Structure formats: structure tokens, C-alpha cells
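for the writeup, i need someone to sanity check this before i put it in the appendix. the sequnce is what the collaborator sent (i think, or maybe the updated version? ugh). structure was predicted straight from it, no edits. if anything looks off just tell me and ill rerun, i have time this weekend
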Amino acid sequence: MKYDAVIIGAGPIGSNVALHLSKKGFEVAVVEQKREIGIPLKCAGLVSKRVIELSGISPNKIIQNELYGAYIHSPEGRVFEIESDRVQAFAIDRVLFDKLLAENAQNYNAVYLLNNKAYSFEDGKVQIKSDGESGVLQYKILIGADGAKSKVREFFGFPDPKEVLLGVGAEVENININPKKVHVFFSRNIAPGFFAWIIPTNREGTEARIGLCTSTPPPKPIKSYFDMMFTNPLTEPFLKGCTVKGLLGGAIPLGFLDETAMDRVMIVGDAASQVKPLSGGGLYPGLLSSNFCSEVAEEALENNDAAKKILKKYHNLWSAALKREIAIGMRIRKRFLQMDDSQVDKYLSYLNDEEILSIISKYGDIDYPSKLAFPLLKNIPILLKFLPEIMHL
């Protein structure tokens, strides 16, 4: 069982690498510990147009709903409406999204080994185990796309994420909300260290994905915060009488990693902490980085040279594209964590300003929130005191 590339993790990031390499004729194996791709769901599934374009999947197959704006709920219960005349994001069927990417890779003969746990990666060999039976895969290049708690990252001593969030949520039905806008809730009582959300997932506003993230460790068990979404005065009115179809959740790594490639090994996606710090979204940075990973792996395999000096090109490429955005996001997040609810409420109150709302409508970009940060800093003088720290990268 010899392969040019062995990929650990059959999420969308791992499958995207598998697709690109198998398309080029390389022998690729993907090892996944789940029995079924995409299940259980671990993502809110709110993405930009760029994500759909990077995936190469037909939008008609995966888009559940189009979102034009948001309701921002402050800790004190004030609601600020942000709207646009253009689509800002899409709610997608994440399970189907994962499955279709894997199917595309398999169509080019990538081998998927489901229900297999990888537990050793020494000497160019991956030890795998499934239901008590073990096997060995030989590789020229190993790619860790195995999520926030990556075994590949741990085994090879790559840096750990600067921070890890905990997330929990669910798919719900029998609700009645505006189908064109997301609800975002800021309150330490609801989601300490982050925020909660309600994302309408159909065009009638009767189904949604709800959830929240917290800093680690949360003051109370994270499931208790999820349960409180159904009783908290800020969130309860939107969820009253709804039916919970299934829980989702997972860990979200934050912070730039200084190293993501070494001899014969690369890590990508959540394993490489390629996540937007202000939203916790990892699909866009992960898919973008997986393209760089695929390009460098292809070059290394063609030249039969997977030394660190060759694979480091991948690290340099994705860093050039995303490091600044991640760094700015982490700086802003650091300030956010220092604020109590009254301070958060104070700063959210600036959303009452029509000029500010027009700036958000003009510059808002869920993949590059820094494009919005600096116009806001310029137009809200009190925020300028944050500028030196944010700019000092």
C-alpha cells in the first residue's frame, strides 16, 4: 500500500488536496476516522461566494439560503440592523458539501479509508487501525488535514494554536425568523469570550442553525450555555417552540502558526490553525491554503524531492495570503476579551449611526474583516486608541 501522498482527514480541506493531486495522476489515500464523511456536522455552514468558487461545486447543489445582512444583539438587549442590497453570505448544506468534495476526489481515483484511525507516522509510514485490524500506508508526502486536535501536528511537533475555542450548536426547525438576515448575540452570559448566532437555512425562515462559541475553558460546561439559549431573554424569543434536529460542535483553533511544513510533511486547514479569529470560520482560509498545499506537493512529487526547503514554499505562500489578516484579527480579539459587557454594549451603540452602517455595507467582507476595521477606526475617533496596537504587527 504505497502512495505518493497520504492525507489524514476527509473534511473539505483534505478532500480538496486529494482532488487536486489525484487529478494530476498521483496515487492518493485519504484516512478518516469517521464512518461517514461530514457526519457529525461541526460547522455553522455560513460561507462567502469565494468558498463556493474555491470548492468547484455547483452552487445549486449546496446553497440553502442567501443572507443579505444581520441583526446584532447587544448585551443589554439593544438590536442593531445591518442590511445590504447584495448577498453577503450563503448558508450551505455542509454535510453534502463535504460529501461532494470527497466524491470529486474519488472520481479521480483517490482512495478513501473511512473508519480508520491513524496513530503513528514514523519513517514514511502511517499506521492505521480499524475495528481492531491494523495496516500500514507508505507515503512520499504526508498531509495533516485532521482538524483542531491534529495528531499529525502533535506527532511532528508543529506549534500549537495560540487559542482554542469550544463550539456547540444544533439544527432547528419550526421557527419564524427573517430568512434574509443572521442574528448575532454578544453577551458573556450567552457566549463568554465570543458570540452566539442564529442562521436561517431556508428561504422561508422556518429552519436554522444555531450555536455559540466560548473561550477555553468556559466558566461553565459549554452544553449549559447552549441550553440557556432557549431561556435567555435575548435568544429565547427567536427559539420558542422550535424543534432541535441534531447537535453539532467542535473545537476551533486560533492564531498564526510559525511552521506548517517540514521534511515530507505539511499541515493544512484547522490543523494549521488557518481560521479567521473574528468569526471562527475556517473554510475560506483552509480551502485557499489547500490550493497552495496541492501546488507545492505536486512540484515536490514531480521532482521527487519533499525536503523541508521545498515544502516550506507552501508555508510562505499561505502566510503571504493570510498572516496579516490573522494577526489583525488576533489583535482585535485580544481587545475584545479585555472588555466587559457594558463596554461591548457601548461600542455596539455606534451602529446607530447611518454613516457607520453605510461603511459596514460598503466594506463588509466576512473573509477579510480587516477591510472593515480600518474604515471604522477612522470614523469612530474613540476607537483610534486601539490603532497603535492593531497596527503593530
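The domain at 2-330 is CATH 3.50.50.60 (FAD/NAD(P)-binding domain). Residues 389-393 have pLDDT under 50 and may be disordered.
thx in advance!!
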